[in-house]
Amino acid sequence: MNHARRLSDELMPLPPTAVRAAHVLWVTAVAAGVFETLLAVGRMAAEGSGTVSEIVVGLAIRIPVFAGALLVAWQMRRGRGWARIVLTLSLGVAGTASMVVQPVRAWVQGHSLGTALQEAGPMDLVFGASRVLHVAAVLTAVTLMFLPTANTHFRKRT
Questions:
Q1: Which one of 22, 79, 106, 122 has the lowest number of neighbouring Cβ atoms within 10 Å?
Q2: What share of the chain is helix, strand, coil (3-state, %, to 5)?
Q3: Among candidate residues 67, 88, 66, the one with its CA nearest the CA of residue 76
Q4: How far apart (Å, rounded) are the C-alpha atoms in residues 151 and 148?
Q5: How many CB atoms are closer than 10 A to CB 69?
Q6: Is residue 74 within 8 Å of 23, Cβ to Cβ?
Q7: Phi, psi torsion values for 61, nearest 5 degrees
Q8: 19, 157 in Cβ contact below 8 A?
Q9: What would the pLDDT profile of 79-138 be if each residue is shown by its tens digit?
């Protein structure tokens, strides 16, 4: 990176509140994803339900996704329009779909939320609470990235 570019990045004004909040929410979503992964790995190890290779493959996929999400979220905060689109399509659409498909499938098959909560153990409830936070953070971040003040920020920096 040349000196002039580095200097212009250092002098860049703070992004609008909506963009800063979206960035915090993307970091929150990644943190929730890491937490959910740790819970899942812990459960698999405790129950003996996953082989070491299954756990390693799952981590080998998730760790780069988490790291990439943080890097792209940082670029979004800096006003890179491409980053806003990548986050929206990859995590906002595809990622959210992957998180809600199982509960939606259970609901379609006639399972109620009340029954699921009655049958849930403490770890299920913790995982579920994290998943709700995760999905809410993603959906709110996507919304914030497209508010008028955010749009202006991305037009200036793209």
A1: 122
A2: 85, 0, 15
A3: 88
A4: 5
A5: 21
A6: yes
A7: -85, -45
A8: no
A9: 999 999 999 999 999 999 998 888 888 888 878 778 878 887 888 899 999 999 999 999
Following DSSP, what letter does each residue of 96-134 receive, concatenated? HHHHHHHHHHHHHTT--HHHHHHH--HHHHHHHHHHHHH
Residue 120 in tokens: 């849930």
Only one residue has tokens 């709700």, namely 132
Strand blocks (E) in the chain:
none
Identify the CA nearest to 96 among candidates 121, 132, 47: 132
28: CB partners within 8 A, 6+ apart: 133, 137
Structure tokens at 36: 């959910």
Asked if 87 and 76 touch (Cβ cutoff 8 Å), the reply is: yes
